[in-house]
Amino acid sequence: MKPTTWPYGEFYQRNRAQHPPALTPAYKTSVLRSPQKSLISLQNSLSEITGPVFSHDELGPLDNDLIMNYAKEGLPIGERIIVHGYVFDENARPVRNALVEVWQANAGGRYRHKKDTYIAPIDPNFGGCGRMLTDDDGHYVYRTIKPGPYPWRNYVNDWRPAHIHYSISGTGFAQRLITQMYFEGDPLIATCPILRSIPTESAVRQLIAPLDRNAGVQLDSLAYRFDIVLRGSRATWFENPVLSEGAMARE
Amino acid sequence: MTIMVNELTYLNETASQTAGPYVHIGLAPKQAGFDIFHKNFTSVLAGPKTKGEKIRIEGQVFDGSGTPLRDVLIEIWQANAAGKYNHPADRQNKPVDKSFRGWGRGCSDFDTGVYAFDTIKPGAVMGRNNRPMAPHVNFWIVARGINIGLSTRMYFSDETAANAKDPVLNLIEWEVRRKTLIAVREARKGQVVYRFDIRLQGPDETVFFDV
Q1: Domain holding B130: CATH number?
Q2: Which of A44, A47, A230 to mutate to test the interface with B (most CBs of B within 10 A)?
Q3: What is the number of structural domains in chain B?
Q4: Cα–Cα distance between A108 and B183 in angstroms, integer?
Q5: What is the ipTM score, two decimals?
Q6: Is B206 inside a domain boundary?
């Protein structure tokens, strides 16, 4: 069988050494919410290599503009920033048409959420969420206000570093990922129990977005760059038990 | 002298982080208490034209103390009634149902912790090595305190024969644990409901997969 660029194959085994384990006692909520039995390892079938496909007509024109998408009687308060980057797979190929969803606190560190009761005020002009699809290069971009840090009840003096939550949906359901992006230079990064749940220094560094002076808008906005890597998939050079024979069309 | 080899240049998958308590803002803003997007992703998968038996899947996700999670977000992914995924990698010779994407996103209720999806019962999909898989729905579960999304599958209690041959259920060495993946069918006021509770810990801990 000759090599093919058909982009769908089994995903590489997830390298769990780069991810936080389920149980991380310094992040207290994980203690009762972490499975205690081993995960059952599963080789991929169609159920894992397929996943939902999203289209542009499901999104609105301001969905990637958090400065404007909830502006009611003015602009939101805070530092105007642009965040952009690429979604790659582990083979360094762009992941096209990936759904990237983001959510965050406002400049004061308050979320627009029924359950957030922090003293910092809600910004009437800021919703705090956005979404976009990557282009053919795997690139995404959105505009927002830099979120503020905020305290949370874990240890009584724990503070989250400024961060933006990310949800990424690639080509297959087994690539599904939720993570958080942090900002270069934030002194709270070093002591955050959630960030420190990640076992390796290099994996932590991968979540910290550097300032990208070239991508900003002069006299308007600074920019940060955040690239995301989803699981890569095996090329189908040889007969692939997921995709061959009965699992394929009898063409 | 030691001869070094060239390094392979794979990238590393970005590390997971918890979805946190405010996951609804980004993924289900209506539940967070506000309106922002014109179109929202929902827990209703089946439309009026969707082929297949209409079903509701509902349940709760329990922590190690037996308390239901009230802030969990679940996504499901499933084949259509003919057993075909609406995705280009599915090359089974079966029809796609244009009115069915097969994906939905739902949250547990802030008071009761109950989640629900309105969908159809999927058909059987061919598995690896030409072994058919019993009808199933793929689950992905995230919440505050869950550091990396949990993957599991829901099977159907009325598919006893297919379940007995399912290659994935049969991978689970401990037969007693297989039942944690089987949703119980009940009829409620003319509606078919499958109850699927998920337990994160304890003697009946749900089987989760490393996919």
Answers
A1: 2.60.130.10
A2: A47
A3: 1
A4: 44
A5: 0.96
A6: no
